[in-house]
Amino acid sequence: MSRKRVVVTGMGAIGPTGNNVKTAWQNVVNGISGIDLITLFDSSVIENKIAGEVKNFDADALLGKKEAKRTDRATHFAVAATKEAIEDSGLTVDDSNRYRVGCIVGSGIGGINSLIEAVIGFTTKGHHGVSPLVVPRLLIDGSSGRVSMEFGLRGPNFCITTACATGNNCIGEGAEIIRRGQATVMIVGSTEAAITPMTIAGFNNMKTLSNRDDDPKGASRPFDLHRDGFVPGEGAAMLVLEDLEHAQARGAKIYAEVLGYGHTSDAYHPTAPLETGEGAAYAMLFALEDAGLAAKDIDYINAHGTGTPLNDAAETAAIKRALGEEAYNISISSTKSMTGHLLGAAGALEAVFSIMAIQDNVIPPTINLTTPDPACDLNYTPNVAVRKPVNVVMSNGFGFGGHNATIILGRYR
Q: How many structural domains does the chain have?
């Protein structure tokens, strides 16, 4: 029995560079950063004062004021991105198919804003200060549940949490559900809204954040010799994955095909990657094996590329370990140089950018790459986008806890 082919028929995105796919992508291609000074709260209480915030977003207009209050900011983003993706796909969900349409909405931290609000309420007012809605709002699977309810999806529905590898795992596992025939359509992606004083203070005290508060747009510097940490971001992205035959039967537009998926664990350290890149390399190799491809078939790698000294060197080592000498011939970039690091939502947004690279035949740049690091000696597409044929893209996602997840997306043929 041949393996079912899984294609992407719709996309939605909301993030620091734009609140829809078209805007977010065009700003990334043009090297326009969405990182700036924090406005979501008074940043005088923390040392790091920059982030990639979602701007001009109206949850009340999306859900209505009552429903917006009942759900966390992370869920608002997930619903917005799903709405765009479903509308883009032209998919109709009704009683004839809703048990064959499922969703996976992952998150690294989930409803952290709601949790913090509840803790403050309890500390100041006791149990009367805690909303009866706090539990469903703070649950990490709250966004997945809400998306299923909002759009009437009664197929498989769950949440994946693998830190910053979450988005890639959601896409890969959604494709596997379709391949084994458990669903015909899976709406998959991830969301994050963790720009809070507590989370930023925590990352700061771990020494993982950039301290370039005087230069927000130049702060995220993946693969640069003078990189000093990542910049936190927020947002969501969702993809409509579909059995190819189903997509063809309804005349859907096909953006790309999910070709391969690999995931491994470093089993090494809570936050640091294996310096050799071994675990990440195996994720890439397994994705290539799953896709039936070789290193020479990859046109572009959307790197995890966080801008931390450890990650970028380890990812470079991993790419060379997995792809050999061919690594030097492949265009690579980190779009986190413009969006910041969306944590659990990073992989989903970067999958959208990877697919748009195929659609438009363009490699987005790694901005702020002015002084190459000798330990990072591959082609990272510094500062300016490059127009060239793009048919197959590898996208990497690596997370705290040693999670490594790689997906390979290709032009539909």
A: 2
Domain span including residue 293: 262-402
Catalytic entry in 263, 341, 376, 403: 341
* List 76, 263, 304, 403, catalytic entry: 304
Question: Is residue 358 within 8 Å of residue 258, measured between CB atoms?
Answer: no
164 is catalytic: yes
The CATH number covering residue 104 comes to 3.40.47.10
Residues 393, 408 contacting (CB under 8 angstroms): yes
The torsion angles phi and psi of 405, rounded to 5 degrees, stand at -140, 130
The Cβ-side half-sphere exposure at 298, using a 13 Å CA radius, reads: 35
In this structure, the answer to whether residues 153 and 279 fall within a common structural domain is: no
Q: 252 — phi, psi (to 5°)?
A: -75, 150
CA-to-CA distance for 159 and 144, rounded, in angstroms? 6
User: Residue 410 falls within a domain, yes or no?
Assistant: no
Tens of pLDDT, residues 255-275: 999 999 999 999 999 988 888
Q: Is the pTM of this model over 0.85?
A: yes
Note whether residue 411 is domain-resident.
no
User: Contact, 196 vs 120, CB < 8 A?
Assistant: no
Element (H, E) at 37: strand 36-37
- Asked if 56 and 70 count as a contact pair (C-beta separation under 8 A), the reply is no
Residue 242 within a domain = yes
Reported as a single tens digit per residue, the pLDDT across 291-317 is 999 999 999 999 999 999 999 999 999
pLDDT digit string (tens) for 222-264? Answer: 999 999 999 999 999 999 999 999 999 999 999 999 999 999 9
* Residue (of 52, 55, 59) closest to 74 by Cα position: 59
How big is the chain by its Cα radius of gyration, in Å? 20
The catalytic residue among 164, 170, 246, 376 is: 164
CA torsion 308→310→316→322, rounded to 10°? -130
Q: Are 327 and 388 in contact (CB under 8 A)?
A: no
